[in-house]
Design brief:
3-stranded parallel sheet, Lyase 2-enoyl-coa Hydratase, Chain  A, domain 2, alpha/beta, 2 domains, single chain
């Protein structure tokens, strides 16, 4: 009788979380308080090092102190496709240091599969308030609905064609 070993299945390790970090400060303070900007950048750098020490893949957008820097930070974080964004509030700042970052990221999300985002939001509500049986039944129904959407067909066609998808929310 011949004995054969079962095939070995390699263990897959999870990719580290990609975390975007940006700090905000007010550019008007730099001339008023000698060394403040450098000190705040050092604090932010310390936060980024701690995150890396925890295994995160950190994407730093630096210290944002002008609307132009905020737009650049938003573009950098959107391009990097971060899964979580941490805002380090270093000093008082105006909305012009934060809003452009949020607008850049919102624009990226709006180009994505918005119908799928809505389904995920609904599933989070069911999963957080119902039983496991309810959550699994709702997930099965949601997967069936999602698989019948134009966005799903577009995602599949784009994957096969090796091109970026163009989602319509349908």
């Amino acid at each position: 009788m011949a004995v054969t070993a079962a095939p070995s299945i390699g263990r897959r390790t999870a990719e580290p979380a990609r975390v975007g970090v940006f700090g905000i400060g007010l550019a008007a303070y730099w001339d008023q308080f000698d060394g403040l900007r450098e000190r705040l950048e050092g604090y932010q750098g310390g936060l980024e090092r701690r995150l890396r020490g925890l295994g995160a893949d950190v994407v730093s957008a630096g210290l944002v102190d002008t609307p132009e820097a905020a737009r650049a930070a938003g573009a950098r974080l959107a391009e990097a496709r971060v899964g979580l964004i941490l805002l380090y509030t270093a000093t008082y700042a105006t909305s012009s240091q934060v809003l452009p970052v949020a607008q850049e990221l919102a624009a990226r999300l709006a180009q994505g599969p918005t119908a799928a985002y809505a389904a995920i939001k609904r599933q989070l509500a069911v999963g957080g308030s119902g039983s496991l049986t309810d959550a699994l039944a709702a997930e099965a129904a949601a997967q069936q609905r999602a698989g019948a959407t134009a966005d799903h067909r577009e995602a599949t066609a784009a994957f096969v064609a090796k091109r970026p998808p163009i989602f319509t929310g349908a």
